[in-house]
Design brief:
It is a single chain. With about 120 residues, this protein is mainly β. Helix content is about 5%, strand content about 60%. The chain is built from one helix and eight strands; from the N terminus they run ββββββββα. The strands form two sheets. Strands 1, 2, 3, 4, 5 and 6 form a six-stranded antiparallel sheet that branches. The chain has a two-stranded antiparallel sheet with strand order 7-8.
Length: about 120
């Protein structure tokens, strides 16, 4: 997270609610983009200065739960409390994986990274 200068962090807890959900579903083909209220059931992911990769599960007012890859456009309703654990000895970056075609997480130990 660039403002906090977090080079490697993981989301360990999150609670709250949202009023607009925008997620990508499995297989990266379909999306949900709904202006409805949901309770946040869980959020998990990695954060760094340059990138975030977050998955979210939410439930509607009937208890139906859905989840996927969090996208821009999701809007918090009254609150979202997120606890991030910073891994101070590590750096998270992304590197293109030719097999998957995606920028995949690369975890580097700061001490090992600068040893020659």
């Amino acid at each position: 997270m660039s403002k906090q200068n977090i080079e490697a962090g993981v989301i360990i807890s999150a609670v709250g609610c949202i009023q607009h959900l925008h997620i990508r579903l499995a297989e990266a083909k379909n999306y949900i983009n709904a202006k409805e209220r949901y309770e946040i059931v869980s959020i998990t992911g990695t954060v760094s200065k340059d990138d975030v990769h977050i998955h979210i599960s939410v439930s509607d007012n009937t208890g139906k739960t859905v989840g996927g890859h969090l996208k821009d456009g999701t809007i918090v309703d009254t609150t979202c409390e997120i606890v991030i654990y910073e891994l101070k000895d590590y750096i998270f970056t992304r590197e293109l994986d030719n097999i998957t075609g995606y920028d995949e997480l690369l975890i580097q130990n700061k001490k090992e990274r600068f040893v020659e």
